[in-house]
From TrEMBL:
Name of the protein in question: DNA-directed RNA polymerase subunit P
UniProt KW Transmembrane keyword: yes
Membrane-spanning segments: 340-365, 377-396
Top-level taxon in the UniProt lineage: Bacteria
The entry's keywords: Membrane, Transmembrane, Transmembrane helix
Amino acid sequence: MTNESVNYQCPACGGPLHFSSAEQKLACDYCDSRFEVAEVEALYRERQAKADAKASAAPTPEQAASPNEAEMLGMNAGYICSSCGAELISDGTVAVSTCPYCGNPAVAPGQLSGSFSPDLVIPFKLERKDALSALQEHYKGKILLPKSFISGNHIKEVQGVYVPFWLYGAHVDGEVHFDAENHRVTEYSDRTVTTINHYDAYRKGNMSFERVPVDGSTKMPDGHMGAIEPFDYSSLRPFSVAYMPGFIANRYDEDSSICRDRAEKRMEGSLISAFRQTVSSYNTASLMSQNLDYNWEDADYALFPVWMLSTSWNGKNYLFAMNGQTGRMVGELPCSKPKLALATLIFFIVAFVITRFACLGSNAFDIAYLDFDLEGILINIVIPLVIAAIADLFLVGQLKTAVEATSADSYCGQFDLTDESDTFIRTETRVEMKQQKK
């Protein structure tokens, strides 16, 4: 038998309630009533608990007596809207939605209880109109963005979603070895001699991390979720379903043990970076080996507010995400190939002029110095091309802001360096012969 949802309705008129992010209260648009979160939570606590208990007692596909029964139970992921009686279909991870027939917020029974009950929540602070405004701002300053995209893309969907996150804490001890190099360049009339001294830079230390977030939903793109950080943890609240009406809420479908690897990589990135900063007296330092030991704390389970926006242009969909608390917007925008080609040409010409002035001074525009020997190719082609390529990468990077987080710098404590030693390894000498001009 399909279970009934718990629909959060106005105690005054029975209309649908929604959480007002601007007021931080539950609001009814029908009678304009406003209610505190604790008030609505208390009103629906018993009813929600009964619905969750009934859902928990229902058989699961693993408990089925036959393969046919297991298949039927697996397909029966729907529930009944308690307001209008419509059957709502779910993939089993949507915990809160809105009934498309009566407009009431529907909390799926059992999806936010037991092992799926979040510990914490950050309520939405920004509204739908803020997300739409932020998207328009996101377009500005993108030199390579096609002009027609701004006026021609169509917004397909704007949805406020409570995304499940695991929050990890750990104390990490580490030992690393860097191949550190000091360079000395000596110029002679006929050659350039580069002397490189190699050192084994050993470092030992530790760092603590608190509440490093990793999204626990396969529906959410990891790049978008990492790029909208950080969240302001001062707004963390004990979880209450009363924050959910008016938004979609997903429960996790990747448990804490699966997601922990991503948190570990982020902690590793921050700790290695801290170690690297201690070998700053060298010209370069490349990591040779590392040994990190993690002492994990129990992970917290939280729901964080995210506005998801989908647009279409020229037959392709573009997905954007905005932090529903801070307003940080990320996504991937299209690149205009004609604009990119023009930008490359301009950057090359500017870099060509600057490079020749830097290398040849007053002779920069003397045709006699427009050589294409090894040195001439370097000055006239290679260096300008490299500069143009770097500039292009910067402009293209403006369009690709949904990048998965690789560090946990916003969530770490003080780095403690407990041991260090630098051991000389070897000297390397490189000789480059100069070509004499005719």
